Amino acid sequence: MSEENGLLQGVRVIDLTRILAGPYCTMILGDLGADVIKVEHPLRGDDTRQWGPPFAEGGQSAYFISANRNKRSLSLNLKTERGLEILKQLIHEGDVLVENFKVGTLERLGLDEQSLKDINPGLIYCTITGYGYTGPYKDRPGYDFMAQALGGFMSINGPVEGEAYRAGIAIADLSAGIFASNAILASLYHNSRKESWQRIDISLLDSMVALTSYAASNYLVSDEIPQRLGNAHPNIVPYQTFKARDGYFAMAIGNDGQWKTFCEAIDKPDWIEDSRFKTNPDRVANRKVLTAMLEHVFEKNSIAEWLATFEKNDLPAAPINTIDQVFQNPQVQARNLQLTIQHPLAGTIPLLGSPLKIPTNPTQMRLPPPLLGEHTDQLLQELFDYDAQVLENLHEQGVL
Questions:
Q1: 173 belongs to the catalytic site
Q2: How far apart are CA 311 and CA 318, in angstroms?
Q3: Predicted model pTM
Q4: Domains and CATH numbers, the chain
Q5: pLDDT in tens, 20-43
Q6: CB half-sphere exposure, 294, CA atoms < 13 A
Q7: Mean per-residue pLDDT, 106-134
Q8: Residue of 173, 206, 274, 314 with catalytic role
Q9: Residue 347: beta bridge partners?
Q10: Residue 162 gets which letter from DSSP?
Q11: Which of 125, 97, 95 is nearest to 12 (CA)?
């Protein structure tokens, strides 16, 4: 466990989020050194605590573990008057408030934007919802699957024929969490120069529309609706999976120089000057013809043989790794993308390493995913000097 100061040391985040989008956002901030106080219902906690199997030793769900390291858990019943008072105290002491309730939930608790601003004029207040705080869908519940469908992502994901596919992970939730952390970091930078109220409104739908990126740009420029291409690229050919003698692998030819090298490597030099394939626009126009020709070439050798050919000629190609193979990969190991941390119930648990590589001030694995309410008494003593009797009373009253 690193003891170095993180880039966000001294930043306190009040985390009212649960499930994935919000917790992923606050985990990123925690990895960067922020003090993240995860506020949870005293009995239920974050729903994902029960999302399993699999569970680590002691009943810790793998799903919860994936997004909740570097946080301290404070149990708090927001349906009690005293619980709301404590939340207001926390917000007063915080720099950032992140929540992913349905639109209007905090308002119904008496914590509208003006009230939050009155409590803490320099607060960065970030909401993560399904559809944002404006528009006709703002009151709808937010689900990753619906955002993938409505935001156009599914229409371009999946095989050419048959149904559209969602991503194999909750990409709307995860991208919303990343976008939220970016916005919070920008707001923290602004407040480091001139402290002021900041309001951030992140939605799953916006995040998915943003992720359609060049596919959306292709449509906006051409008025042509992008179609599913399986693993193929709409703008570059060849750039997809192909079947070798013993299975599939991924490859890409990103420019005409690589095309020349590739043709020579597979002993097809006559393709270099073939008018159907000479430039990338030519290859895109003749995608079906070229793909069929390449299928006949690739079926002759094994995956390992083709990967060796591509590597020898400095051309991009990769095996399609299963998750276990990912963590056996030497590059993944070299980048420390699997770490371990000690947990009070589960013993040593594995964690994904952070992708944020900052050699001058590395991210830290300071705290394991917390037990429900694990730090409640510690935090209330640390922040507000609550004594043992006050804490005991609050527990007995169902506030904590």
A1: yes
A2: 9
A3: 0.95
A4: 12-211+335-396 (3.40.50.10540), 239-325 (3.30.1540.10)
A5: 999 999 999 999 999 999 999 999
A6: 26
A7: 97
A8: 173
A9: 343
A10: S
A11: 95
